[in-house]
Design goal:
This protein is mainly beta. It contains no helices and 11 strands.
Length: about 120
């Protein structure tokens, strides 16, 4: 599979990468991020597009080949990447919020750091 993210106001950088798929993609609603705290925090995640009226789209997690871990989980969304906010922040999605941030994609090693839209798909909630 190919992942392309354009330079944009959500995450600022463009990427064009190739990954070997190891299974089907599933819609994901939260990921555990370790960027702001070593213990990790659950964050809501959505895909972000270039549609001004409706920029949100689904975020998905795709098992892909990872040279270090064997299988990793690629979290991606729209042409402008993904957008995250801590799960305890109750506000609309916005590029202007200081509580939210964008990424072109994320690569996670542990599937326990994912919460899927289908709760029966979660390995650990």
């Amino acid at each position: 599979m190919f992942l392309e993210v354009e330079t944009n106001p959500n995450c600022g950088e463009s990427v064009f990468l190739r990954f070997k798929e190891m299974g089907p993609a599933k819609r994901v609603r939260q990921i555990k991020s370790y960027d702001r705290t070593p213990r990790g925090e659950w964050c809501d995640v959505v895909g972000w597009t270039d549609e001004a009226d409706q920029p949100l789209c689904p975020a998905v997690a795709q098992p892909v080949e990872d040279s270090g871990a064997g299988v990793g989980f690629l979290v991606y969304g729209g042409i402008w990447g993904i957008r995250l906010k801590p799960a305890d922040v109750n506000e609309p999605w916005s590029l202007d919020s200081p509580n939210q941030w964008g990424e072109p994609y994320l690569s996670l090693v542990d599937e326990r750091d994912l919460r899927y839209d289908d709760p029966h798909a979660d390995r650990q909630s």
